Fold each of these.
Amino acid sequence: MAFRIEKTVAGFLICGAMLAGDQPVSVEVRHRHLRGGAVGTLRVDADSISFVEASKKGKDSREWRFEDIQQLSLSSSELRVLTYEDRKWQLGRDRDYVFDQLPEGFVEQARQVLAQKLGRRFVVELADSGVAATWEAGAKLRHGLGGSEGVLRIGDDRIVYQSKAAGESRSWRFEDIDTISMAGPFDLSVTTIERSGWRHAGPTEFRFQLKEELKEDRYNDLWRRVNGSKTATGLQSAQPDHRQPAGQ
């Protein structure tokens, strides 16, 4: 019990230092293997992320500069670093490293720093609990032969999908969204540069089956705000027809 309390307090102190901009920041985590894993220290500094294995062998120790990270995903239970390394025995699939057993308080605080460092390469597999929704509805996120159910929320500057299914929740700032489109009043698609699946392919389309109708005027307003965010950040590009607002 005492160890758990110490670990919780340490987690909040670490996150406080991270928010204050102090570098480096270190937390104890586990590098997950197919069977078990290796305990060590995950370190975030001004230019890189590194993992130092506690064992003297140190075979799991690694360091990645931020520019060498294809994508970093953060969920409530794990942090995943996708690199440019090839797994030759998996037909050249890019290698990722998964760290779990994250200390309490780390996730919500670390996401702010990692978002600043990685921009659109940072994937938030969490639902922003503080979003002020201007519209929300029950929804099913369709993929493969099934999907997950949850709630889709549209806020002033982001879209949030919250689901109880592991790894399904997402939060996207408007500037992190490539496109949105509709195939009907009960169908909304959000496309991002997220790399997903066994091959880590991207971009990724998230297609939602809505349980309430998304009115045309509301969708058109959302479309304009999403694309307006790209104008503000210099990311807007030529728009194919399927990106036009409904009714135009």
Note: Residues 1-10, 237-243 have pLDDT under 50 and may be disordered.
Amino acid sequence: MVAKIILHNTGNEVLTLGSLHTGVITGTFFVLGFLLSTTIADYKESERVPSEFSSILENMYEDAEATHAVYPKFNLEKFRTILSDVARSFGDGIRNKNHTARFDIHRLNELFVEMEKAGVPPNYIVKLKQQQAQLLKILFRVTYIQRITFIPSASILAKSIIPIVIAFILFTEIEPLTGGIIITAVISFILVYMLRLIQVISTPFQAQGKTQDDVSLFLIDEAADHLSRRGEKARRKTKRAA
């Protein structure tokens, strides 16, 4: 707004308002709208991750616990501990780009071998392995969304044309001056805000508390707490039985 006033008072508004301005501004909003719509699709997919991931973890433990009641020779406590580690390491893994969660998921293979030795029917183990594969699939998908930039060339285009369009409006004579200032301010605000919004939601799992638009992982944290409580309950039950 200050720049608009300065340019007006110094007589540097060298462009005349015309139909070309409408086309330029419309084209800019089209590019930003295209980027925003595609980015939101990935963001909405990321919002489903916590519920799917936590439900698989809890379902795996329930299945393993029921199996352990019939085939008690494999280490159920270790199985629970690994699932809890997966839940604890998920958020840190996708935010800080480490592979702890992936390694924790693969540690389940040790327990599957124990189950085979304990005589657990193959169809029980196959179901758990399928759930393990789902955990990996979710982890890989969300890691991909977290790290990639959707159509980098389009993002570069958006970052390039926004300052050009704002400069285009600044150097255009719009009468009366008050109306020109308001129009410049509103269009500039919308363009810059949309670009910032695209940048924020393109990384749905940022450092906790960094932005209010982060996808929350509280369901996975609650799943980890639930597994811990189930472990405590199982240990108390074992002590009473002894």
Note: DSSP finds nine helices and two strands in the chain.
Amino acid sequence: MGHYQISWPRGNRVATAFDIHPTPTGLNARTNIYYLETPDLGRTWFTVDGTQVRPPIRWDEHPSLVRDFRKDGLLVYLKDLQFDSEGRPIIAFLASRGYQSGPSNGSRTLWTARWNGGAWEYSRITTTDHNYDHGSLYVVSDQHYRYTSPTGPGPQRHATGGEIETWETFNAGADWQLTYQHTRNSTNNHTYVRRPLNYHPDFCAFWADGNSFAPSPSRLYFANTRGEVYQLPETMTSDQARPVLIKALP
């Protein structure tokens, strides 16, 4: 029943978090979070507390279970996975009351689940208006995290994406604050912010835009750690071209 999966490496470890699609609803009922990691390219697998398990995972009450969100009546949409300086995982995810888009299921809530060495700790980032508002988590230090995602309402309300914003915590998730509004007054929704592997401060996030309700052009953007945003040229007439600065420093 497992499906949607996020993963990230740290040294010789590869960690993964995934969900289940319980019957009879299947795809539209994705819920729960599970976590496993391997130190040897998949030959052996362990839970977060070091318990060795043997895949495949065939039942939902498994030692790899992070939390049973099905008992809470919540769906789960996985967003990102990172580590702190001690190699403890931090999972970013969205919790929702239903799979249907629109206001009927209320606000969707973005969270992190952080392993503290003995238990999972949960931190509420903010709310958004669609289950597929995908973003990326940045662990600057053990106290300082950033989460960049389309959490701002976009021109296509209650649809995938919106305006790109960055939320930050300076106390390991005890509270979060909005620090950057990367896009404003956009024509189309932006979404699916991705963090490049081994990113450079001048290219820490990239994403695309598009009309969520109709066919439209889709443009590519990237941001730096200072909050500036550039758009890649829509048309190139040579091998190289300069990106267009669309949001400068305040």
Note: The mean pLDDT is 94.
